[in-house]
Amino acid sequence: MFLQISCVSFFDLFDFQNTSAAIKYLSLLSPFWTTKKTHAHTLSLSLSSQLWAIFSSRIDTDTNSSEMGYQAFNRALMDDSDNFVSSFKQLSMDSDPPFRQTYKTLFEDTKAIENLVIAVEECELPLIDLNRLSHREPAEKRESCKAEIARASQEWGFFQVINHGISRDLLEKMRQEQVKIFKQPFHNKTKEDKFPAGSYRWGTPTATCLRQLSWSEAFHIPMADFHAGGSGSFNTTLSSTMEQFATTVAGIAQKLAEILAEKLGHKSTFFRENCLPSTCYLRMNRYPPCPIPVEVFGLMPHTDSDFLTILHQDQVGGLQLVKDGKWIAVKPNPEALIINVGDLFQAWSNDVYKSVQHRVMTNPSVERFSTAYFLCPSYDTVIHQNCTTKPSLYRKFSFIEFRQQVQEDVQKFGHKVGLPRFLLRSH
Hints:
Blueprint: H1 2-16, H2 19-29, H3 36-42, H4 45-59, H5 63-77, H6 81-93, H7 99-102, H8 104-108, E1 121-123, E2 127-129, H9 139-155, E3 158-162, H10 168-182, H11 186-189, E4 200-202, E5 217-222, H12 223-228, H13 237-263, H14 270-274, E6 281-287, E7 297-302, E8 308-313, E9 319-323, E10 326-330, E11 337-341, H15 343-348, E12 358-361, E13 368-375, E14 382-383, E15 397-398, H16 399-413
Parallel strand pairs: 1-10, 2-3
Antiparallel strand pairs: 3-11, 4-5, 5-6, 6-13, 7-12, 8-11, 8-13, 9-10, 9-12, 14-15
Helix pairs in contact: 1-2, 1-4, 2-6, 4-5, 5-6, 9-13, 10-13
């Protein structure tokens, strides 16, 4: 009876506080769980199932992983009292990166803590139906669609597309595979051999204050290594799913880039010649629940160092961008992909198209997943303006030069400076 009452209290801790508090409470109960026989008589299968239902809602959403997790959870329940708490803690905590421990000094600097949560308006991005680009459509409808793409890139720097050619089944499969790989124990992810070395990233190593810390983890995968087979066992369900996703998204990125070039007055083959599948990147992101969402970003404000980014996100929300000098929240659309202009396109268009700041806010109780494709050129590609209606705003620069400057600034200042570094002196 005592154990059942205690477990009800445990439910409360799990629902309304956090995993750490629940574990501490369980450690107080452990003296009552002295033998396997005690477990069998005091903890019914029903109660075990109730515990697992709450526990699994926090650590896993994939059906197969949940079944395996439930078996592991029951093994932990039937363990001796000394091992139960440690087993439970390993199950619940190990998948998240050790943000608190690693950035301990930042959290201790209370003077630097800021409240980052400011109420912002939620709005829908301009919505483009890519079916209107079909050759079966009248020419005037195709041109109208292209004009909308260009206008959104000028006025927003962001837009969303529907009827993009990626099935809902593929997007769901991509998410399921993402969940599986991110739900591995943290130490496994740091050694993950399905991707090239250095692909797994988390936090912000250069952060000097909490506002520079990103409460997120990611696998950032160069498509050159992906196509080459990478290292380790790359022929997996995840890699084949990623390949299907990346191939389709690459086609969308090329089509949109050519439209934007055309609207500048160029029938340019620049993107097909310089932005090859092997020069682009795919990034799978996870934003774990954050116990201090008012103080830490999921991803700190930034612009993208590419031509175009194509993003698929779940329905949790959290993406925000700057429009007309103020932050706005992007309303998730389950049918859409989000497109945003990167720094290279802004320079290449001589500021016609806008690379705008965006960020991801943290959530105290729900994790967020997204996948981004970055349309990038080869490192030696030279970026120079292709809009002849006004003098160039930026000097010529190569992509590797831009990347190196960004890295130097991040190391020095804790944040990216970006395009202002490449403005001509007269501007």
